[in-house]
C-alpha cells in the first residue's frame, strides 16, 4: 500500500511516498481503509526530529488520526466493527497511509452528517481543548487567553471557552484576517503573537491555554490574574526557556499555576464520551470545524511546507 514516511528528520522535505505492506490488526484492533488523514501540529514537531528522546525514529510513518471504513478486525475482536465508518486514533504514527490500525478503545463511529475529513479536524483537537480547559479548572465567568489560537486545538478552545461562559476570550494570532475568523468562533479580543495589539483587552486572565510554549512563554506568566492558571497543551514554538521558573517565582504573590496537559492522562472511556458528544454536535453544525485545504496523500510534503510557512488556519486534511 501507499504511505508517507519520514526518511530524514528536519522538515517537510524529509517526507517521502513509500510502498509498504498493509498493517495487520492485532487482538483488540481494527484495520481502517483510510479516507481522510488529519495533519496535526504534532506531526510537524515529530518531523522536526526534536522528539527523538521519546523514541521517534527516521523511517516512521507519521499521522495519529484517520477516518474511513473498518475492513478487518484482529483475533478475538468484535466483528461488528467491520463495515462501520469511523474516526480512529492511530497512536504514535501509521496514519499517513492507505490503511491503518487502531485499538478499538480509540475508535469512534462517525455519526450521519459528519464527513471523514471533518472528523479528523476534531477527533484529537476537540478532546485536547475540552480537557485542557478542564485541567485549567476553567469555570463560567472567568477570562481566557488562547495562545496560538489559529490551529484546530485553539479554534475549539476559543469556541468552548466562549460557550462555557467566559466574558472575555482573547487570542494570539499573526494576522488581522485570522483574528476576524477567530472572532466568528467566539474571540472577543485579538492580540499579536507577543500578546499586545488591543488596548481594550484585559491586562490579565484567569486561564491561559497555551499551544505555543517556546521562548516567549515566560512573558505570558505575567498575564495571569491572581490565582490564574496557565496550561501548556502544545509546543509549536519549541520548548520553553529556563527563565520560565524565574517568571513563575516572580509572580509568587499572585499564587499562579503552571501546568502541562496531555490527553494521554485522560482515561480512554472519558475521551470516547467527549469525542462522541463533540462528533454529534459537529454533525449538527454546533461546533466549528475548519478544514484549511484537502490535498492528496502524495502532497504530504506540500502540506507540511504550508504549515511551516504559517499558511494554515485550522487543519490540512490528506486524502489517500
Ligand atoms: N496536549 C495534548 O494531548 C496534545 C495532543 C495533540 C497535539 N498536541 C500539541 O498541540 C500542538 C499542535 O496544535 P495545533 O495543531 O492546534 O497547532 P498548529 O495549527 O500547528 O499551530 C497553532 C498556531 O500557533 C501559531 N504559531 C505557530 N508557530 C508559532 C510560534 N513559533 N510562535 C507563536 N505562535 C506560533 C500559528 O498561528 P499564528 O500564525 O496565527 O500565530 C499556528 O496557526 C503541538 O505542539 C502538539 O504536540 C497536544
UniProtKB/TrEMBL annotation:
Residues 10-318 form the Enoyl reductase (ER) domain. One of its GO terms (molecular function) is oxidoreductase activity. Keywords: NADP. Gene3D superfamilies: Medium-chain alcohol dehydrogenases, catalytic domain, NAD(P)-binding Rossmann-like Domain. It comes from the Bacteria. This is NADPH:quinone reductase-like Zn-dependent oxidoreductase. It comes from Kribbella shirazensis.
Amino acid at each position: 500500500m501507499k504511505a508517507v514516511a519520514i526518511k530524514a528528520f528536519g522538515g517537510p522535505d524529509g517526507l517521502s511516498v513509500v510502498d509498504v505492506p498493509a498493517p495487520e490488526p492485532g487482538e483488540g484492533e481494527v484495520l481502517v481503509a483510510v479516507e481522510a488523514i488529519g495533519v496535526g501540529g504534532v506531526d510537524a514537531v515529530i518531523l522536526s526530529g526534536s522528539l527523538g528522546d521519546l523514541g521517534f525514529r527516521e523511517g516512521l510513518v507519521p499521522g495519529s488520526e484517520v477516518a474511513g471504513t473498518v475492513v478487518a478486525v484482529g483475533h478475538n475482536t468484535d466483528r461488528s466493527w467491520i463495515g462501520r465508518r469511523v474516526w480512529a486514533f492511530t497512536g504514535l504514527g501509521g496514519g499517513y497511509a492507505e490503511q491503518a490500525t487502531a485499538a478499538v478503545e480509540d475508535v469512534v463511529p462517525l455519526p450521519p452528517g459528519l464527513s471523514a475529513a471533518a472528523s479528523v479536524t476534531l477527533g484529537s483537537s476537540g478532546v485536547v481543548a475540552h480537557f485542557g480547559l478542564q485541567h485549567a479548572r476553567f469555570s463560567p465567568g472567568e477570562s481566557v487567553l488562547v495562545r496560538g489560537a489559529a490551529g484546530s486545538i485553539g479554534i475549539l478552545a476559543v469556541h468552548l471557552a466562549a460557550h462555557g461562559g467566559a466574558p472575555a476570550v482573547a487570542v494570539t494570532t499573526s494576522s488581522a484576517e485570522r483574528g476576524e475568523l477567530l472572532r466568528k468562533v467566539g474571540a472577543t479580543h485579538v492580540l499579536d503573537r507577543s500578546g499586545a495589539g488591543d488596548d481594550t483587552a484585559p491586562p490579565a486572565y484567569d486561564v491561559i491555554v497555551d499551544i505555543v510554549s517556546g521562548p516567549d512563554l515566560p512573558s505570558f506568566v505575567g498575564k495571569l490574574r491572581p490565582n490564574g492558571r496557565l496550561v501548556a497543551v502544545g509546543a509549536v514554538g519549541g520548548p520553553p526557556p529556563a527563565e520560565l521558573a524565574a517568571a513563575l517565582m516572580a509572580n509568587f504573590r499572585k499564587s499562579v499555576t503552571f501546568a502541562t496537559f496531555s490527553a494521554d492522562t485522560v482515561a480512554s472511556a472519558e475521551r470516547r464520551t467527549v469525542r462522541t458528544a463533540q462528533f454529534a454536535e459537529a454533525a449538527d453544525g454546533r461546533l466549528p470545524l475548519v478544514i484549511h485545504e484537502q490535498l492528496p496523500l502524495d502532497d504530504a510534503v506540500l502540506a507540511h511546507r504550508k504549515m511551516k510557512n504559517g499558511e494554515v488556519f485550522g487543519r490540512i486534511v490528506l486524502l489517500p
